[in-house]
Known about the structure:
- This protein has 2 domains: 2-206, inorganic pyrophosphatase (n-terminal core) (Alpha-Beta Complex); 211-330, Diaminopimelate Epimerase, Chain A, domain 1, CATH 3.10.310.30.
- It is 37% helix and 19% strand.
- It has 12 helices and 13 strands.
- The protein has helices at 27-40, 75-84, 103-108, 139-149, 158-171, 182-193, 198-206, 211-223, 240-245, 256-260, 291-299, 316-329, and strands at 2-3, 16-21, 46-51, 69-70, 87-91, 112-117, 129-132, 225-228, 233-238, 268-274, 279-285, 302-303, 307-312.
- The strands form 2 sheets. Strands 1-7-6-5-2-3-4 form a 7-stranded parallel sheet, with helices on both faces. A 6-stranded mixed sheet has the order 8-9-10-11-13-12.
- Helix 1 (27-40) links the parallel strand 2 and strand 3.
- Bound molecules: guanosine-5'-monophosphate and manganese (II) ion.
- Residues 22, 95, 98, 119, 282, 301-304, 307-311 line the site of guanosine-5'-monophosphate.
- Guanosine-5'-monophosphate binds next to strand 12 and strand 13.
Amino acid sequence: MEPITAFYSHLSIPKKVVITTHQKPDGDAMGSSLGLYHFLIQLGHSVTVVAPTNWADFLKWMPGCDKVVDFEAKREQANKILNEAELLFCLDFNIMHRTKHMENVLLGLNCVKVLIDHHQQPQESAFTYGVSNTSKSSTCEMVFDLIINSGYADKINNDVASCLYVGVMTDTGSFRFPAASANVHRMIAFLKEKGINHTAIHENIYDSFLENRLRFIGFALLNRMEVFYEYNTAIMAITKNDLFRFRIKTGDTEGLVNYLLTIEGIRFGAIVIDRDEERKWSFRSKGAFDVNTFARLHFDGGGHFNAAGGSSKDPLEVTVRNFKNILKEYETQLQ
Ligand code: 5GP
Ligand code: MN
């Protein structure tokens, strides 16, 4: 993988471009993809965002979201667009299997592939150019850096700015995590001057759920949470029936894991959801406990130091039992 700076000169040559991101795209995945989209179309590129799966309803207000092609829902159309691509941007993931059923299609493409991402341990051999920086708050911050450093600051209009704001806001927990650096705040000041309405964006993302999601959270906190004070850990296991009973949709469970860390003294929070194809784990920590390594070692996953995910093919009760056994090995680290 060559450094992204070596790619800057390609930006001015119009190409057929596909932007893609990880499955079940979150605020940073969708924000960075659409922010880059609104930038590249101004340079004359023909651009399509292809997402591996569907995404949460609270992202659907974003400018350009209605044009995003869902690979799972529109496979034929998506495959045609991917096969015609001259340039592929991979945003907010760094290992091809995070694109689920798109993995083999992406690996098979011969076009130039550009990585922009902030997760640990990138699969460098899969990309032509790229930037991988784990100190960055979000992929949106990195797309902002790309636009500024390649000399196109004047192309940051309200659409670009609004999309990029989403990912920085969501990935920093509304600017509270350590990665919300002085540079991030300078970037936000720049976006504000481009006219973004940050209050409206915050409301669109965090105040647009249905009643059933709030009732589900109440139910889950009361009935599905276990706290292990001896390990400073709290976990939550959500069954298929819970998802069905509360009509839970993509995005409704996002952020649930963070409640666990609001208990005083709890340093490690884990939630597992019984999805159709796998048991999907989310891990969060505070301070020196490395959930990226934990997820990689035990749950075929990865992510960041304090926020990671993984999965298991075991039934729910089995994967929860395994987790509790593994936890014993970490007793001293979690003190
Ligand atoms: P979340 O718990 O919000 O799904 O994910 C937390 C972080 O870990 C995100 O940055 C996400 O991209 C990453 N992540 C989630 N699941 C996986 C996984 O299965 N593998 C890897 N490598 N990263 C993951
Ligand atoms: Mn991200």
